[in-house]
Amino acid sequence: MDDKTLVALANEARTRAYTPYSHWAVGAALLCTDGTIYQGCNIENAAYTPSNCAERTAFFKAISEGQREFAAISIVGGPEGQEAPDFCAPCGVCRQVMREFCDLDDFRIILGRGDGAVKAFSLRELLPESFGPENLA
Ligand code: THU
After folding, report:
1. Which of the four pLDDT bands, split at 50, 70 and 90, describes residue 10?
2. Which of 19, 21, 39, 53 most suits a substitution to test ligand 1, by most atoms within 8 Å of the C-beta?
3. Beta strand pairing status for 24-32 and 37-41?
4. Is 55 a catalytic residue?
5. Cα–Cα distance between 135 and 8 in angstroms, integer?
6. Tell me: the pLDDT tens digits for 63-72?
7. What are phi and psi for residue 83, nearest 5 degrees?
């Protein structure tokens, strides 16, 4: 699975975002180590706090289906109804969810833009000096 294909799946998921409040539509595509892909979009709520980011939608779909090992996630986000003009980095809460299940150095976070540009990070780059499961072991 190459980065551009995974980004295209995030772009597709983005079209299903439910964003009547922020009008900021995000899509994600999560690649499991067994090759399975789970797509996710952000889902907002009139009470605001129950809203869920695209990345966590994808993770929670995968985890609830029994997946525990992840290779990469692609993310595309921007104003609803138009191509993403810039990269959309994951929020802190989503980074912490990744930290629970993903290797700091091997897991790749791939950001895509509407013009096809792509850039990738390790989880350690986006969440340095982090707190995770082994701290409580
Ligand atoms: N959002 C995501 O889904 N993922 C991100 O990486 C950043 C933010 C959502 C949350 C909310 O529905 C909207 O974008 C604006 O913050």
Report:
1. very high
2. 53
3. antiparallel
4. yes
5. 36
6. 999 999 999 9
7. -65, 145
